[in-house]
Fold this sequence. Notes:
With 308 residues, the chain is of the alpha+beta class. It has two domains: 4-83 and 99-172, 3-Layer(aba) Sandwich (NADH Oxidase), CATH 3.40.109; 191-307, no CATH class. The chain has helices spanning 4-18, 33-44, 58-62, 64-67, 103-121, 138-144, 191-195, 213-219, 241-244, 264-268, 271-275, 279-285, 291-294, 296-307; strands at 23-28, 73-80, 93-94, 127-130, 149-150, 156-157, 165-172, 201-203, 206-207, 235-237. The strands form four sheets. It has a four-stranded antiparallel β-sheet, with helices on both faces. A two-stranded parallel ribbon has the order 3-10. Helix 1 runs antiparallel to helix 5 (103-121). The protein is globular. It starts with a helix and ends with a helix. Bound molecules: iron/sulfur cluster (2 copies). One iron/sulfur cluster binds next to helix 8 and helix 9. The site of one iron/sulfur cluster (SF4) has 12 residues, from helix 8 and helix 9.
Amino acid sequence: MYNSAxxxxxxxxxxxxxxxxxxxxxxxxxxxxxDAVNLEKWLTKGYHGKMKWMENHFxxxxxxxxxxxxSKSVISLLLNYAPSENLDQQKIKIAKYAYGMxxxxxxxxxxxxxxxxxxxxxxxxxxxxxxxxxxxxDRAWAAKSGLGWIGKNSMLITKQKxxxxxxxxxxxxxxxxxxxxxxxxxxxxxxxxxxxxxDAIVSNxxxxxxxxxxxxxxxxxxxxxxxxxxxxxxxxxxxxxxxxVCPWNKFAQPHQTSSFSxxxxxxxxxxxxxxxxxxxxxxxxxxxxxxxxxxxxxLKQSIDFLNK
Length: 308
Ligand code: SF4
Ligand code: SF4
């Protein structure tokens, strides 16, 4: 006979499967001691740059019991976004995760349904859902719950299908059975470190955001420093280089979420359409995309920087 924690864990994994999540893992809600030390070092070195919000809520960031009252378990969920379209040949590139509809909306809806189904099938369960929306160390939780390991490029990598995944969480006041962390399979590979055009991967799993193209093209509100001239390799919003070169992404399979497919107009953009993009065109092409979060002016600034 199953005890209730084991039975409820199975129900949760069934729901994850029904809702189309690719992987689901469970961890006990507790302080992440090692990650707390690493985060502190990273912040002290100033690798977060102008993302001052990363300094806030340190305690909550490393301990879900301080974030969600009475929390007992963290459920980590992965949703594949590996595209079937290949837009990497375009001169101006955006990160694959932003090809289709903004994942925040898509996943938030799924998570709300998830919580409703838990309440229906298990009983009254309290908790909160998170997708990039609060101080949660999502890669650390996903690794702790056995979904993959954190690679030298700092991404969560699954042995089965690589690293093009959105990570989200439910933090619940429900006792569940925890999964075991998996082992690291980077081995002697250094492909991501070697390929990073700005040397942003300063050591194993440590990224200096102030040098990372994702930060420069999304988070940094001011002009991109001229030091990066000729180093951006055509990336105008985000950067996938350290994932594209990862040998584990040979196992990536195209996603099955229709709303993540690239907008037709995005696929048709030519170099001159990017360089001469008006706000009107931007609004049409990126109407529901995560690119909208950076905004027209930021995208334009990045494109102009690439063309200087
Ligand atoms: S996203 Fe691009 S710039 Fe940032 S670490 Fe990876 S390869 Fe380097
Ligand atoms: S490219 Fe190599 S070192 Fe980098 S994350 Fe992938 S397997 Fe690890």
